[in-house]
Every structure is written in structure tokens, then in C-alpha cells.
Amino acid sequence: MRKTVIASALLAACAALPSLANAADAAPAPEHTFTSNVTLASEYIYRGIGQTNRKPAIQGGFDYAHSSGLYAGTWASNVSWLTDGSPTVSNSIEMDFYGGFKNTVGDFGYDVGLLQYFYPGSGYGNNPNTIEGYIAGSWSFLTLKYSHSFSDLFGWTDSKNSGYLDLTAAYELSPGLNLIGHVGRQKIHGDNSGASYTDYKLGVTKDIAGVVVGLSYINTNASQAFYTNAFGKDLGKDRVQLTITRTF
């Protein structure tokens, strides 16, 4: 009799397992999510333009996301482009602060937000600190994004209302392996419109036990007259970039 009772209890418990699994699958996403990330890069390249004079960069950030779609975060990297351009400048870091709202409607996603680029330091001719608003839409592996400057853009004189439009594709070739393609157009408003350019990127990323390794070829048609620094380096010239990123 005892064996029969035990057997019946075991059978009942086994029958309940799928229900428990389904309940776990149906558990709501956490209301608050905190993540952090760190990246080692062979060079910091932003919108196709080198920020560290062909030298390595260490980068990292913290992000908060609410289940409603609201988010905020901060990110930082070492930079040298400001000191490379002028011996009077004292600066070695870029700090970004951003917040916004993103969500999905059917198969489409959208993202709107505000981003502050901050360069602590001194000796600037024109303030490089920049405020941009952005709006992005995504579908499948494609994302189209437009960024608009509400201040002068990265120190370009009278460049308020400059814009950057980019299209990025991240296509999964196999689990953990992605092909990345990107084209962007940076429009510089005002007297420095000759500094406007188009940038291109083609690369792959591979997730190896939670560490994402990226290898990319990057090029631009940026004018050397505007993007060659005091060391004679053309910051828009084509090159290969290696990145190693871990998110926690």
C-alpha cells in the first residue's frame, strides 16, 4: 500500500512539471533591469572618425531599463582627438549620458532619446560638449536612426542643427555569429559644411561564452583637410578595428 501511495505521488508530481515550467515561462519580465559593460578596442572609432589617434581604448558603461520602455545610462572612453588637435587642450576622456524610451509595435521597434557628450577639461577654443536628440526604427535585422544636434557639434563652429543618418544591419549567420553592415551620413551645418562625410563599416561579431569579439573594416570619404590631426594622421582613413566586449 505504501509503495502504491508513493508511486501515485511521484506520478502526480511528474505530471505537474510541465505546468510548473509553463508558469516559469510565463513569468513577467523584471520591472527594473541594471546592466554594465566593458570593452577593449584596438582604437575608438565613432561615426568612422578615429578618436584615439590609432591607439587602443578602454570603454565601459552602466544602463538602467524599466519594463515600460524607459531607460537611462552612462558610458565613457579614453580619447585623444582634442589634445591631438591643440596643445592648449587638457582632456583625456569622453563621458556620455543618455535617456529615452523604446518599445515595439508588432514586428517594428522604435527608440527616441536624448544624448549628452561631455568632455571634461580645459583650453578649448569652441566647446566640444554636444547635445543630440535621436529617433530610430527597427525591423528584423535592420535599424534606421537619425541624430540631430541641439548644440554645436563636437566643437565645429556654428554647427547647431547638424544631423547624422545611419542604416545598420545585424544579420545572424549562426547562433552567436553576426554579420554587421553599416552606412552613415554626417552632415555638418554652417561654415564647416565641407567637413560633412559618409562612413561605411563591414564586420562580424562572435559571442564566445559571453564575451563578444568584433572585427570590422571601416572607411569614410571624409576630407583630409578637416580630419588630419597635428601628428599628420588622417582620422577618416580606412582601417581595421578589433573589439572585445563583456556585458554583466
Question: Care to describe what's here?
Answer:
The protein has a 12-stranded antiparallel β-barrel with strand order 1-4-5-6-7-8-9-10-11-12-13-14. Strands 2-3 form a two-stranded antiparallel ribbon. The relative contact order is 0.14. The protein is mainly β and 248 residues long. Helices cover 13% and strands 52% of the residues. It contains 3 helices and 14 strands.
What are the defining features of this structure?
mainly beta; two-stranded antiparallel ribbon; 14 strands; globular
Helix content: 10-25%
If you average the pLDDT, what whole number results?
91
Unreliable segments of 5+ consecutive residues: 1-21
The total count of helices amounts to 3
Query: Which overall shape is indicated by the principal axes computed on the Cα atoms?
Result: globular
